Structures are given as structure tokens and as C-alpha cells.
Amino acid sequence: MLLRGSLPQYDGETALPELAAPVTIDRDALGSVTLTGLSRLDLAMAMGFVHAQERFFEMDLMRRQAAGELAELFGIDVLSHDRKIRLLRLRARASAILQQLPGEHLQLLDAYRAGVNHGLHALAVRPFPYVLTRTRPVPWRNEDSLLVILAMFLTLNEENFNRELALSSMRAMLPEPVYDFLTSPAGNWDAPLLGEFMQLPPLPSENDIDLRAINAQKPADDFSRTEQSPGSNSFAVSGQLTGGAAIVANDMHLKLRVPNVWFRVRLIYPDASSARSHDITGISLPGVPSIVIGSNRHIAWSFTNSHGDFSDWARIRINDTDRAQYRNSDGWQPLQIFTETIRIRNAPDEQLTISETEWGPIIAQDHDGTPLALVWTALQPDAINLKLLELERITTAGDAAGIARQFGIPVQNFIAGDRNGNISWTLAGRIPGRFSSYDPQTPADWSLPGAGWRGWLDYDLYPLLHNPDSGRLWSANARAVSAEQLKLIGNGGYDLGARATQIRNRLFERDQFSIVDVQAIQLDDRALLLTRWFELLQKTAESFDTRAKWLQPVQTALADWTGKASTDSAAYHLVRAFRYEVMDTLMNGFVAQIRRNDPEFQFPRLSQTEWAVWQLLEQQPLHLLPAPHQNWNELLQHCLQAVAARMNQDGRFIIQKWGAVNSAQIKHPFSRQFPDWIGRWLDMPSDPLPGDHNMPRVQSPNFGASQRSVIAPGQEELSYFDMPGGQSGHPLSPYYGSGHTNWAQGKPTPFLPGLVDRQMKLVPPN
Q1: How far apart are the first and last CA of the chain?
Q2: If 0-12 CB within 10 Å is exposed, 13-18 middle and 19+ buried, where does residue 574 land?
Q3: Alpha-helix residue ranges (DSSP H) falling in 174-233
Q4: How far apart are CA 44 and CA 50, in angstroms?
Q5: 759, containing H or E segment
Q6: Phi, psi at residue 762, to the nearest 5°?
Q7: What residues contact residue 99 under an 8 Å CB cut-off, 6+ apart?
Q8: Which of 320-324, 456-460, 548-552 is predicted least confidently?
């Protein structure tokens, strides 16, 4: 009864005091919501109402994640997260950002907040997670919507904080040629949109490093970990290749959960200055009153994480005679001291003291113990806004790219196409403008001339590509620009480029495209990156004595190689494991020197490790052969034997098929707290999933495409959209897990909502 009491309202009428005119809320068979009203403000209020009823707990988690307030709900188990995040004081910064937003944005936030709190109050019983945790939801505030945006900044940017700290340690402890080789910003899998291929560094010489003399420990599992990173695929073809409207494809890669992070919604409201109506369909992020990606019947737009460098570390000089002072360009200045109170469920409150400089909070130390202040775009008061809403009224791809640079979001690759066939690419979001002589990959003393940021990068300096001659655009988190432009954007751990290359090559295989053709590229699970690894493994297996019993399963598995990450392929599983074992073994020789001083050191995301490893395998320099191996074939044999030993189950060497390893584990946050039979009811099915990281169909058990869409603006009825995890967050809702099966099987679901399944109305009180 308690569970049913917290079900969303799907029928009838509800009065909202602040509403100016009625709003109709239609749901189709999947629970996709269509909001129809007379003003955007009324629809913002209605969106808040619906978000709260379907997803308030998930909204609460996102604002608490960004604010460092999870321990108030879950106790000491999450205290370490709150301690780390509270150092950034994001709630206080969100409140400060509110003071700078234009009036129209504040009105939308006011309306959305009112809708959220009315939706929450209208439930007969508070959302079921609060019943289970015996807590009560806290009403929504305007700054909470900004905290949800900041939570996305953390998701997409936080990895780079630790990456640059690790790079600093590498630079300090490795010879320069070794560092340059390992951190190459380019490789042979590059597929940039702009610029030529970059010059690649040579192998380090024997005078630089001799791995035979370094006693390396057991390899750490570094590279399988770093290849799973928030990213996305997006690509577009222009009207010259479709015979009409452009086609824009997008699949955004995130950790997957139940319910999904996105919420399907359509907005219909009249234009105040003309007789036409606005009709926007796409996905929203519960907690924010805007459409993230989608279409407005004139343009379709998409995002992928840019993986540029949008955070730096400033080395702070503390006054030896007065520890409350630090040095800036004008001399000694007082540190700003703040105290934050962390509330902990079933435990006393904890006080946290934070020291801040003019550049940011001091939250880390460099490799030599020097205090470091984090400088991050999200901490700047004018980095966040709601300008994304303006896409709802834009009618051309060129205008969309022009406004995108002003968005207050984590910096993204932005691709737009319009119904007249035009396509555009640029970067969306604010980019720091750095001094030309400053190296952002290494912490620096910002009190010195020429170090640090000089404000925001001028919009005119943003890269832009409009209607390329090829009629094709692609983005997959890899390097997209020339070496000179890369200096402006920075390298925040770009992707290797295998996905981008595979997408680009598929786009050039055809001269004409339909929506079905574009969808086929999204679902491409060919393992092109692993082709030469398969050949290397085959050669290595042949170098053993064929009488070895453990070799038989290897030969049997290799015989089923199809060149795809298909669910029934044992060969793919084996080759993939061999690749990571070789990479970890080879790179472990380089990292051993660093771990002498820092035993916990882990390699950061180094996008070109694949290229570096193959330079070693092809040239086979003896001085770069890690100890204790005597020759390169011995190292490869050792790696294959190590893989075989790990796959040994109860004395039998069994190579599982890829689908058994790569089966879905898309879970509700609470499912692990219950017996299995309840947990299985809350979670999505454990389907075997094709695909992997270095191919267009990115898929691991709980990471991958959080949505897939292919949209031709003006032809939305023919377009499609899929997402995992479903629309509703309530397990008794008919829309819990809705549409998930199509996503898992790669079957297209119509982009526009279908026939009305349930309808309710929000009305003014009188």
C-alpha cells in the first residue's frame, strides 16, 4: 500500500496555484510525456511536476552528489565522497550563480521549482526510496537545478583532476623523452575533423631508460579501467547525401542505472511573436527545465564530451611566517577560510575547514608536497547558465552552432543539422583562455607572469565547421582539431580515436544515406582495433609446443573469430583479454620507476597507449623489454599464459563467450540491499550485450549508450530513439523499464511519442 501510495498521478486534474493556463500531460505506451500549454513558463512548471512525481529521488541524489550531502541520507558509508566534494563548496557557488542569471532564466527556475514541490506534495506517500530509508525528501530550491548541472560537470570533468596530478608525477620522475612518448597527444587512429595528423614522438633511447634494469612488480589493471570513460558518439550527414533534410545521430555514453538518467519529453506551446507553435521533442535531465538533445522540427542537435582541458592546478606558496597567507602576483594575501557542516545520518555532524585562494580551493598536493588549488571552469560564477533553452527557437544549423558557444554546460562537441540539409560542428560551453607560454598539463605557480588563465577564450577563436565539402561530420571524444587549435582547447584525456575512425570510414562508404543506414553505423560492433591483436595472439599460440593441453581451448576459441564483439564469440573475449595483459605488462615497466616513490600510483588516461605499445611490439627494442623477460616472444607467451591462468575454473581452462562476460548489470540503486528475488524485480534483465569500448556500439555491463537517436528534422515521424532503464523510477509504474528491450536488442523505437495511453491536466485554481 505504501508503494502504491507513491505512484505518480497519471489521470484526472490537479490545481497548481502559480499556473497561468491549463497544461495537458499525455503519456504514450512507453510513458513518454507530451506537455501542451500556452506558455513556456507553464510548461516548465508542468515539467517540474512530472519530474518530481517520476524521478524526485534521482534528482535528489544528483543535487546531493554535487553538494556533498549524501551522508545526510546514507550515513558514514558515503562520508568520504562528501568530504571530497564539499571542498568545492558547490552549493554556495550555485547560490552565487543564481544572482547573475538573467530574469527570464530565473523565472523558468521559479516555475520549475514550484512544479517540483507541488508534484512532490501531490503524492499520497513520499517517493518509495524515502519510505525504505526512513527519511523525508527536502523541498526543491532554485540552486538545486544548478547543482544538477554541476553534477554533470563532475561526471564529465572530474577524471581530469586526478589525471593532471598523475601527469605531474610522471613528468617529475621520468626522463623527458619517456614522458613525451607515453603521453603522445596523437597516434595512428586519429580521425580529426580539422587539421592534419600530428608529428609523433620517437621511441626513448637506451640512454633515456633501460627497462631490463628495473624490477617491475605485478602489472596493475590500469588500461581496461581507463578506457571506460564518459563519452559519446555523434555524427551527421548533410542534405547532399540524403536528398533532403540532414540526419543527426547521437548516443551518449554514461554509467547505466535504473531508471535511466534521461527522461523523454515533448513540449508544445505557441510562439509569442507569430502564429506558429513550438514543438520540441527530446530528452530532459530531471532537475533542469530544458531539453538536452532532440529536435524542434527545424533543427536536430547532439552532444559528445569534448575531453578538452578545463581544469588546472595552481601551485600555492604559503608564507612560512604566517600560514594563513599565500602568494599571488601582488604579494602575500590572506587565505579565505570557510567552514562547512556535513550532516551525517545516525552520527554527529562533522565540521570541514576549507582554504581558498583567488584561483580556487586548496584541495590537493603536488608530487613534492606543494599545496595545490583547483582552477576549474565550473567554479567560475559565469560558467553556468540556461542558454541551452534557446535551441528550442533556433531554425538553422548555423545559428545553432553560433549560440552553442555561449551555453553554460560542460564543454561538448556540438553537432546540429537542419531540415534544409545544413550541418554544423563546434564546441559548446565556456573554454578558458590561457597565456600562450603556459603548459596546462603541469601544475604551475600562478603568481608568476604568464602562468594561468586570462579569462575566457574569445568566441571567434572557437573551432567551427559548417557544411563541409564531404557533407559529413563525426565526433567520438577523440582529437577533433589541429595541433594549433589543440593548444587552445587542451588535452583532457582524449579518446584513442578507434571509434571516430570507424565511424568516419563507415560514413565514407556510402554516397547516399537513410535513417536506417545511419542507425547501422551506431550498432557497428566490428572489432577493427583488435584485428592485429588477433593475428598477434594467433602467432604467439603457434610458437608454443602444440602438445601443451591448455593450448587446445585457445585454438578452438580462435577458430570462431568473426572480427566482431558478438555475444557468441569466445575468440573476442580471449583476444581482448590478451590485449590488456600485453598493454599492462609493457607499460608496467615504465611505471615501476614511479611506484618506487609512490606505491599507489596509477596511470592516468593516456589516449595513445595503443599506439605506444604497437611501436614497441613492431620495433622490439631490447632496452624497452621489461624485466625479467629475455626476448619479446617470451613476453608475449607469458601474457598468453597469464590470461589462460585467469580463465582457469576449477582446474579447467574455459574461455567464456563474450555475451557471458558482457551481460547487462543495469541496476536500481537499492537492489543490492534486498534479497535476490526482489533485486531482480528492480533491475533490468541480464541480457548478453554485443559491443565494447573501441567501436561504435559502446557497451559494457553497466556502461554504454544512455540513449540512441537518429533524427531527420522535419521528418521526426520517421526518426527513432531508444534508451535503457525505462522512463519511470517507480517499480509499480507501467512505465518502469519501458523501452529497455528495444535498446538491448538494437530495435528502433519511434522518436515521437505514440498514441495517448494516459492523460491528466494541470489547471489554475479557478
Answers
A1: 32
A2: buried
A3: 176-182, 223-226
A4: 10
A5: strand 758-763
A6: -105, 130
A7: none
A8: 548-552
Alpha carbon distance 711, 683 (integer Å): 29
Q: Residue 313: name the closest of 373, 380, 361, 369 by CA.
A: 373
Q: Taking all residues of the chain, what is their mean pLDDT, rounded to a whole number?
A: 94
**H/E run at residue 426:** strand 423-428
Tens of pLDDT, residues 230-286: 789 999 999 999 999 999 999 999 999 999 999 999 999 999 888 889 999 999 999
CA-based nearest residue to 185, from 433, 492, 547:
492
Q: Which residue has the higher pLDDT, 743 or 646?
A: 743
Using DSSP, how many helices (H) and how many strands (E) does the chain show?
23, 29
Torsion (CA) 750, 756, 757, 759 in degrees, nearest 10: 140
For residue 513, what is its C-alpha cell?
544515406
State the Cα–Cα distance between residues 28 and 754, nearest whole angstrom: 5
Do 758 and 50 contact (CB within 8 A), yes or no? no
Q: What is the C-alpha to C-alpha distance for residues 403 and 399, in angstroms, rounded to an integer? A: 6
pLDDT at 170 over 70: yes
Q: CA-to-CA distance for 230 and 675, rounded, in angstroms?
A: 31
What are 446-465's pLDDT values in tens digits? 999 999 999 999 999 999 99
As a whole number of angstroms, the distance between CA 666 and CA 669 comes to 10
Contact 291, 283 (CB under 8 A): yes
Q: Is the predicted pLDDT of residue 219 greater than 60, yes or no?
A: no
Beta strands 720-722 and 12-15: pairing type?
Answer: unpaired
Tell me if residue 630 falls in helix, strand or coil. Answer: coil
Closest listed residue to residue 502, CA positions, set 323, 691, 652, 298: 691
Residue 665: is its pLDDT beyond 60?
yes
Cα separation values, 371 from 315, 338, 360, 574, 627, Å: 6, 17, 12, 45, 36
Question: What confidence category does residue 715 fall into, taking pLDDT thresholds of 50, 70 and 90?
Answer: very high
What average pLDDT score do residues 355-359 get?
98
Instruction: Name every residue whose Cβ is closer than 8 Å to that of residue 580 and which is 6 or more positions away in sequence.
Output: 221, 223, 224
Distance CA(485)–CA(425), nearest Å, equals: 15
Alpha helices, H only, 436-548:
483-489, 498-507, 515-522, 531-542
Would you say 631 and 212 are in contact if contact means Cβ atoms under 8 Å apart?
Answer: no
Q: How far apart are alpha carbons 312 and 382 in whole angstroms?
A: 18
Q: What is the per-residue pLDDT for 501?
A: 97
Where residue 441 falls (left for φ over 0; alpha for ψ -120 to 50; beta otherwise) is: alpha
* 374/357 Cα distance (integer angstroms): 9
**Considering the chain, what percentage of its residues have pLDDT values greater than 90?**
87
Helices (H), 123-263: 128-133, 142-173, 176-182, 223-226, 239-242
Residue 167's identity, in one-letter code, is: L
314, 360 contact by CB (below 8 A) = yes
Whether cis (ω within 30° of 0) applies to the bond prior to 628 is yes
Q: How far is CA 680 from the centre of its chain?
A: 27
Q: What is the pLDDT of residues 596-626, one digit of tens each?
A: 888 888 888 898 999 999 999 999 999 999 9
Q: How far are the Cα atoms of 234, 236, 476, 517 from residue 504, in angstroms, in the given order?
A: 11, 10, 10, 14
Query: What does DSSP assign to residue 444?
Result: B
Q: Which three cell numbers stand for residue 155?
A: 561526471
* DSSP 8-state assignment for residue 225: H
User: Dihedral angle at the C-alpha atoms of 134, 66, 604, 224, nearest 10 degrees?
Assistant: 40
SS (H, E, C) 687-730: CECCCCCCCCCCEECCEEECCEEEECCCCHHHCEEECCCECCCC
Q: Are 453 and 310 in contact (CB under 8 A)?
A: no
**How many residues belong to the chain?**
766
